[in-house]
Amino acid sequence: MATIIELAVHDVRFPTAAQGDGSDAINKGDYSATYVELRTDAGLTGTGLTFTNGRGNEITCLAVTALRHHVVGRSVEEIFAAPVQFLRSLTADVQLRWLGPEKGVIHMAAGAIVNAVWDLRAKLAGLPMWELLATLPTEDLVAAIDFRHISDALTPDEARDLLDKGATGSAERLERLTAEGFPAYTTSVGWLGYSDDKVRELTRKAVADGWTAMKMKVGGRIEDDVRRARLIRAEIGPDALLMMDANQVWDVDEAITNMAALSAVRPAWIEEPTHADDVLGHARIARAVAPIPVATGEVAANRVMFKQLLQAGAIGVCQVDACRVAGVNEVLAVLLMAAKFGVPVCPHAGGVGLCEYVQHLSIFDYLRVSGSLDGRMVEYVDHLHEHFTDPVTVVAGRYRLPTKPGYSVTLQPESLRRYTFPDGAAWRDVR
Amino acid sequence: MATIIELAVHDVRFPTAAQGDGSDAINKGDYSATYVELRTDAGLTGTGLTFTNGRGNEITCLAVTALRHHVVGRSVEEIFAAPVQFLRSLTADVQLRWLGPEKGVIHMAAGAIVNAVWDLRAKLAGLPMWELLATLPTEDLVAAIDFRHISDALTPDEARDLLDKGATGSAERLERLTAEGFPAYTTSVGWLGYSDDKVRELTRKAVADGWTAMKMKVGGRIEDDVRRARLIRAEIGPDALLMMDANQVWDVDEAITNMAALSAVRPAWIEEPTHADDVLGHARIARAVAPIPVATGEVAANRVMFKQLLQAGAIGVCQVDACRVAGVNEVLAVLLMAAKFGVPVCPHAGGVGLCEYVQHLSIFDYLRVSGSLDGRMVEYVDHLHEHFTDPVTVVAGRYRLPTKPGYSVTLQPESLRRYTFPDGAAWRDVR
User: Fold this and answer.
1) pLDDT mean over A380-401
2) Does residue A429 lie within any of the structural domains?
3) Of A262, A389, B301, B428, which one's alpha carbon is 20 to 30 angstroms from that of B137?
4) Domain region containing A171
5) CATH number for the domain including B397?
6) Which pLDDT score, from 0 to 100, does residue A17 have?
7) Are residues B210 and B259 in the same domain?
8) Is the keyword Lyase assigned to this protein (chains A, B) (predicted)?
9) What is the mean pLDDT of residues B262-289?
10) pLDDT band per the 50, 70, 90 thresholds, residue B428
11) pLDDT at B135 over 80
12) What is the pTM assigned to this prediction?
């Protein structure tokens, strides 16, 4: 038995805004994390985080505190004996639910806690998260999913079938991953805050480092977007994949018009072409820009949004985030719905710890759900990994399999001290 | 000129949970408000609030604080010279937007601030909010709307046309409202927390008080729902309207099945039959239960969600909330989209101050947008009005027109002191 005896939440912020890293059409901030530690009487500590963009990280921290009574005093064994009951204690709290429901600050806080509980479970089992998930019995995985409000798209029986069938050939796929790693693409070349020269320089470096898939930000002036796209395409050659990400700045008709201009540069996908809540808008865009697939999901709030994006044929790429939704449990629902609808999952990463998180999800997806690497890639951004005790290893455009127990988002003690806001040394220097 | 020199935010909570008031299928809490005061150098104070359900109200309060720098130091005149620019400073803040975007805690906080700014404007003009809005030039109303992400459903030109045409006959309609009041329905009879005897007693009282439209909560055991529905129908007779509200507990297919059982009691509408984010689910339910209209909106996060509900034919009744969306500006977008799609607006009320707020919106909608009372009613719950300096007046099932300047959500100073959490006298007594 491991009983959770304390929840500590830390407001961790990295001063990235000053460098222009991470700038896109509508976000420019200090990459931050609402960092949760669950201490147990067994000596182990589970960690989870949700990513934010700087100011406001104190709000998600406070939301974690508002949920702490649902987790402190409970044992990991008891939680996983009735995982949906635990999940709903966080996502359907009779008073706090009003603040979402199941979206935004309160749901992100739930995600950080849920992931910390899963991290504990993996550490107790002595397994990296992907391996814990890939080796769990089908019934345990199905029992972790809240089918409420998605049963019209995925039933427990369908989930069971997918997981049972998905297990076939798992051992061979694991061998392949161990040898080759999981395919990745890089988002470090074309942020809007960078000059053309910097974009060219970074693209050349990416190609030299073995990257054959990379993402640029669009959503500035369309002339600038096209120029930068051509510049990158000229550097990477005709065969490499060039993804484009508009970060929701366009209206629906504007997206369709602008993609007509960008299509000559042969985008591998168009990501967040319009407001993330606009399922019907994404569906219209998807029809208009086909065969270029529409990608979205990094701010899709919950499984009900993903359900609709899939039902409406609005996305050709599912970019679930590890901690905007309610953690591993809700991601499982999304992975299985995506598999049922035949849509590849390429999880959102970057930020703080998101690469560390999502590598586990994609590996599990390949080993146990989709069984395929076709169109599957994990986003990679080369920021801030040095702050984690088990950072991702990416070699020649591929994630190597993590081997340490847990979910890989435990911060180095010194980084935690240094970047805690506002009293850490990094912030005292800034002021 | 009136410059905002201070923003004060108060965590106000009323201990309603202990009485079972306000209990429904998934909410049970202490009705609360994140209460914002904007003090100006002109001596006037603008007030706005967003409603919450108890625990977590401190989170929306903190979110208001995170947004304060966008409003303190600005003049009301400057804000309304470029209202969308001001609105986006709150809803598209480059760092805080990530916490929504445009949903949940951060968007509700924006709503409280935006409404306080409008309250100031109305008080400066010496007009109740409905009259300020109804007498604003069309261009000023159009300029207050953020068309971003809704231009595929409503263009500025279409909004202009609706408002210009809507003005015709406004004087006659105002006379009618002044004489007769605005139609209302009551939600005080059938909360799930009440016994059958209490429901019967409250229904009889409502009928005696002149109510001909009332709402019951469903979403318990279906047998219980049907029994209570029959009980209420027997009391109110065949001609009165009986609305039903499931507060999102059903899955899509479950909603369709349960409404087949409840249809014999002739519901006037079915409200929140499933998860509020499920546009496609609502559309399927709407087709299945027709001609019973589907109603939703109290937790629809923003104009993009309303746009889709309307585009998909998913709702027959639009229940916008005054302060879950980003205040008056975003409500204007919703009212105009609803008018374009021919869907009546029956705003969500109850809670704390919501009746006070939405009476203004429905009166404006009738005077200037829809021009019709057909199917239009304002929700009424008889809780907590005594705490406001300009409480609603409802006589024989109709709201009387408010006459005091402003948006009617200013709390009595003594109530503010007494119910501030956790140090007010009302909470000291509870502990």
Assistant:
1) 96
2) no
3) B301
4) 166-414
5) 3.20.20.120
6) 77
7) yes
8) yes
9) 98
10) confident
11) yes
12) 0.97
Q: Chain B contacts of A58, Cβ < 8 Å?
A: 62, 66
Q: Are residues B125 and B177 in the same domain?
A: no
In sign, the C-alpha dihedral spanning A321, B282, B274, A83 is negative
Please count the residue pairs, one from chain A and one from chain B, whose beta carbons lie less than 8 angstroms apart.
Answer: 200
What's the pLDDT tens digit per position in B24-37?
A: 555 578 999 999 99
Confidence check: pLDDT of B96 > 80: yes
HEC profile for chain A? CCEEEEEEEEEEECCCHHHCCCCCCCCCCCCEEEEEEEEECCCCEEEEEEEECCCCHHHHHHHHHHHHHHCCCCEHHHHHHCHHHHHHHHHCCCCHHHHCCCCHHHHHHHHHHHHHHHHHHHHHHCCEHHHHHHHCCHHHHHHCCCCCCCCCCCCHHHHHHHHHHHHCCHHHHHHHHHHHCEEEEEEEEECCCCCHHHHHHHHHHHHHCCCCEEEEECCCCHHHHHHHHHHHHHHHCCCCEEEEECCCCCCHHHHHHHHHHHHHHCCCEEECCCCCCCHHHHHHHHHHHCCCCEEECCCCCCHHHHHHHHHCCCCCEECCCCCCCCHHHHHHHHHHHHHHHCCCECCCCCCCCHHHHHHHHHHHHHHHHCCCCCCCCEEECCCCHHHECCCCCEECCEECCCCCCECCCCECHHHHHHHECCCCHHHHHHC
- Residue A129 sits in a domain whose CATH number is 3.30.390.10
What is the torsional sign of CA A120, A121, A123, A129?
negative
Same domain, A113 and A230: no
Are B95 and A53 an interchain contact pair (Cβ–Cβ within 8 Å)? yes
Write the pLDDT tens digit of every residue in B56-78: 999 999 999 999 999 999 999 99
Grade residue B19 by pLDDT with cuts at 50, 70 and 90: low
Checking if the pLDDT of A21 tops 90, the result is no
Is 80 exceeded by the pLDDT of residue B225? yes
Instruction: Note whether B288 contacts A: Cβ–Cβ < 8 A.
Output: no
In a domain, B430, yes or no: no
Q: Among residues 55-74 of chain B, which lie with CB inside 8 Å of chain A?
A: 55-56, 58-60, 62-63, 66
SS3 of B261-289: the string is HHHHHCCCEEECCCCCCCHHHHHHHHHHH
Q: Which of B275, B302, B325 would best serve as a mutation to test chain A binding (most A beta carbons within 10 A)?
A: B275
Task: Compare CB distances from A56 to B66, B148, B251 and report the shortest one's residue.
Answer: B66
Alpha helices by DSSP H, B138-184: 138-143, 156-167, 170-180
B126 and B259 together in one domain: no
Count of domains for chain A: 2
Q: Is residue B422 predicted with pLDDT exceeding 90?
A: yes
Average pLDDT over all residues of chain A: 95
**Chain B positions in Cβ-Cβ contact with residue A96 (cut-off 8 Å):** 53, 55-56
Nearest to A275 among B60, B149, B311 (CB): B149
Interface of A with B in 186-225 (CB under 8 A): none
Q: Are residues A204 and A335 in the same domain?
A: yes
Q: Does A2 touch chain B (CB under 8 A)?
A: no
Answer yes or no: is B157 within a domain: no
- Residue in A106, A252, A276 nearest the CB of B105: A106
* Whether residues B30 and B68 fall in one domain: yes
d(Cα B378, Cα B22) in Å, to the nearest integer? 17
Nearest-Cα distance to chain A for B288, in Å, is 14
Cα A356 to Cα B1: distance, rounded to the nearest angstrom:
53
Query: Tokens 């409406």 map to which residue?
Result: A312
Residues A329-340: tens digit of each pLDDT = 999 999 999 999
* Shared domain check, B184 and B124: no
Dump pLDDT digits (tens) for B40-55: 999 999 999 999 999 9
pLDDT-derived band at B191, boundaries 50, 70, 90? confident
Residue recorded with tokens 């937790």? B299
